[in-house]
From TrEMBL:
SUPFAM superfamilies given in the database record: LuxS/MPP-like metallohydrolase
Top-level taxonomic group: Bacteria
Protein species of origin: Thermosediminibacter oceani (strain ATCC BAA-1034 / DSM 16646 / JW/IW-1228P)
Domain Peptidase M16 C-terminal as annotated: residue spans: 178-359
Domain Peptidase M16 N-terminal per the UniProt entry, residue ranges: 60-171
Alphabetical list of Gene3D superfamilies matching this protein: Metalloenzyme, LuxS/M16 peptidase-like
Protein name: Peptidase M16 domain protein
Pfam families named among the record's database cross-references: Peptidase_M16, Peptidase_M16_C
Length: 425
C-alpha cells in the first residue's frame, strides 16, 4: 500500500491462523519499534466464550492483570530477557486494547521472536496469581492518590450510568481478589487468539524478512481462525449519571475537568474516523492555544500552559475532556460554558476552521518522524476498523458545515459533567 502524502509504503500479510501483520520500513532510521496488540481492554468484562456458548462476566481489571502476568514465563521474567538483548520493552492496557511493544537498535530478530513467544505463551500458576494481587493492590492504592487519574475517573463515573468505561482500568482492590487461574486462561484463550490480534513493525527492517520470521514462528501453532468474539455491554442511556463530582486530595491548587458525553455511537470504521476528526477540530477551534478563549482565560490566570482537551471516540462510547489546574474551578466552568454558548449563538469562524485543518494535517505528517507515534496510532485505529493512513483524506473531506452541525449536537449542556479535585486543606 503506497501512501503518497508521506512517501511511505505499508506492507501487509495475513497468516493462516488469522494473524494480520503490517510492516512500514523507514530506511533512514537505525531503530526498530514493534507492537503486538489484542483488541481486549478493560471494558471487555462480559463476553461469550467462543465455541462454548458460555456467557462469562469476569472481575473488573482482569485485562490489566493479564497484561502483567504475560511477562512471567516458566524460566523467569521476560523483561530480563529483553534487557539481555539491549532491547527496551513495555506494555499498556487501556479501555479497548492491550499492547506489548519493544524498541531496539541491535537485536531486532531475537527481540521479535521473544515478543511472539511470550505473548503467545500463557503461564499462570496459583502462587504467581496470588503474588500479583498484592502487587496490583499497591498500584491501585497509588492511583487512588493520583489527582490526574482520579479527576478523569470521577468524570467518567459522572458521565456514564452503567457502561464499563466508568470503571478503573485496573479494577478495584476488591475485584482483583476474585481473579483466578481458570478465569485468566479463559480470557487469554478468548482474546489472545491471533484472529483478534495485530502485529505492526516499523523502522530499519525488510518486510519479507519480518514476514518470514513470523511465518516460521506461527507455522507450528496449528490454530484455525476464530469467529468474531461476542462482547456484551450493558445498555447505556443517553443521559448522564450526575452533573458534578468533587473530591479532595493532596494538590496545591484545584484540578478541573469538564466533559461532554457523545450519544452518536454504534458504529466504527470510516464514519467513526470522520466523527473523531470533526470533533477534534472543533475542540481545537474553541480551546486551542491560538483561540480567543484560551488567550482570555490565560490572561485572567484561570488556566496555565497545562490546560488541555481531547476526544475519545469508540464504537460504543465517546466523550471529550477539557481542563487542567485552575485557581477558580467554578469561574472556569462558567467561562467555558459561556464561550461554547457564544460560539453556538454566533456560529463557527470559517477562517479558524480552515486554519486548524491545515495545522492538523501538518501535525499528522510531522508525527511520522516518530516510530512510536506511527506504531501506537496504527494499532489504536486498527482496533476501530480504521486505517490510519486514511486520516489525511478524511481530514480534507470534513466540511465547515459538518463541523457546524456537530457543534450543536455534541456540545449539549444536558450531557455535560464536571469533575474537580480540591486541596485537602
Amino acid at each position: 500500500m503506497q501512501m503518497d502524502l508521506i512517501g511511505e509504503t505499508l506492507f501487509y500479510r495475513q497468516f493462516d491462523n488469522g494473524l494480520k501483520a503490517y510492516v512500514l520500513p523507514k530506511k533512514n532510521y537505525n531503530k526498530v519499534y514493534a507492537v503486538y496488540s489484542t483488541r481486549y481492554g478493560s471494558i471487555d468484562s462480559e463476553f461469550v466464550v467462543p465455541g462454548t456458548g458460555e456467557r462469562l462476566k469476569v472481575p473488573e481489571g482482569i485485562a490489566h492483570f493479564l497484561e502483567h502476568k504475560m511477562f512471567e514465563m516458566s524460566y523467569g521474567n521476560v523483561f530480563d530477557k529483553f534487557a539481555e538483548l539491549g532491547t527496551s520493552s513495555n506494555a499498556y492496557t487501556n479501555y479497548t486494547n492491550t499492547t506489548y511493544l519493544f524498541s531496539t537498535t541491535t537485536a531486532f530478530e531475537e527481540s521479535l521472536r521473544l515478543l511472539l513467544e511470550f505473548v503467545e505463551t500463557p503461564y499462570f500458576t496459583e502462587d504467581s496469581v496470588e503474588k500479583e494481587k498484592g502487587i496490583i493492590t499497591q498500584e491501585l492504592r497509588m492511583y487512588e492518590d493520583d489527582p490526574e487519574w482520579q479527576v478523569l475517573l470521577n468524570l467518567l463515573k459522572a458521565l456514564y450510568h452503567r457502561h464499563p468505561v466508568r470503571e478503573d482500568i485496573g479494577g478495584t482492590v476488591e475485584s482483583i481478589q476474585k481473579i483466578d487461574v481458570d478465569t485468566l486462561y479463559k480470557c487469554y484463550n478468548t482474546f489472545y487468539h491471533p484472529s483478534n490480534m495485530v502485529l505492526f513493525v516499523t523502522g530499519a527492517v525488510e518486510p519479507e524478512k519480518v514476514f518470514d520470521l513470523i511465518m516460521e514462528h506461527e507455522k507450528n501453532k496449528e490454530l484455525a481462525p476464530q469467529d468474531e468474539i461476542m462482547r456484551i455491554y450493558p445498555e447505556e442511556p443517553d443521559t448522564i449519571y450526575k452533573h458534578q463530582v468533587e473530591t479532595k486530595l493532596s494538590v496545591s491548587q484545584p484540578i478541573f475537568l469538564m466533559g461532554f458525553k457523545d450519544t452518536e455511537v454504534g458504529y466504527d470504521g470510516e464514519e467513526l474516523l470522520k466523527k473523531e476528526i470533526t470533533t477534534s477540530l472543533l475542540l481545537e477551534v474553541l480551546f486551542g492555544r491560538s483561540s480567543v478563549v484560551y488567550e482570555r482565560l490565560y490572561e485572567e490566570g484561570l488556566i496555565d500552559d497545562r490546560f488541555s482537551f481531547s476526544y475519545e471516540g469508540q464504537k460504543d462510547y465517546g466523550f471529550c475532556t477539557i481542563g487542567g489546574e485552575t485557581k477558580d474551578p467554578v469561574k472556569l466552568r462558567d467561562e467555558l460554558v459561556k464561550s461554547i454558548s457564544e460560539v453556538k449563538e454566533k456560529g463557527l469562524s470559517r477562517e479558524d476552521f480552515e486554519r486548524v485543518k491545515k495545522k492538523y494535517l501538518g501535525d499528522f505528517i510531522q508525527g511520522f518522524n516518530s516510530l512510536e507515534f506511527i506504531a501506537n496510532s496504527f494499532v489504536s485505529y486498527y482496533h476501530r476498523n480504521i486505517n490510519i493512513f486514511d486520516y489525511p483524506r478524511f481530514l480534507k473531506q470534513v466540511t465547515f458545515e459538518e463541523a457546524s452541525r456537530r457543534l450543536y449536537s455534541f456540545f449539549d449542556f444536558n450531557r455535560m459533567a464536571v469533575s474537580t479535585v480540591y486541596p485537602k486543606n
